[in-house]
Amino acid sequence: MKEKTLEIKIHDLINKHAISLSELSRLSDIEVAGLSELANGKRQRIQINHLIRIAEAMNIDDIGEIIQLKNIE
Predict the structure, then answer these.
(1) Sign of the CA dihedral 47, 27, 36, 7?
(2) Which neighbouring-strand residues pair with 70?
(3) Molecular function (GO) terms listed (predicted)?
């Protein structure tokens, strides 16, 4: 069985919605540094409330727009 990892698609979101990481930070009330760590895969743990705040800030109903399960190669 292949190992899997979660990808947080912050870069895709900010590009799709034409906003900056700072603007997403303001809208979601999550520090820029925390969003940057999520976006760059630097966090080992993901807080569910951060995902919820991002979804609410971006008016997203499908969590698949924010996270994706990927195979590790």
Answers:
(1) positive
(2) 5
(3) DNA binding
Residue 41 and residue 8 in contact, taking contact as beta carbons nearer than 8 Å? yes
| CA 27/CA 68 separation, integer angstroms | 22
Lookup: tokens for 66: 């924010």
pLDDT in tens, 4-29: 888 999 999 999 999 999 999 999 99
Structure tokens at 12: 């895709």
Report whether pLDDT(73) > 90.
no
* Domain annotation for the chain: domains and CATH numbers: 4-71 (1.10.260.40)
Euclidean distance between the first and the last CA atom of the chain, given in angstroms as a whole number? 12
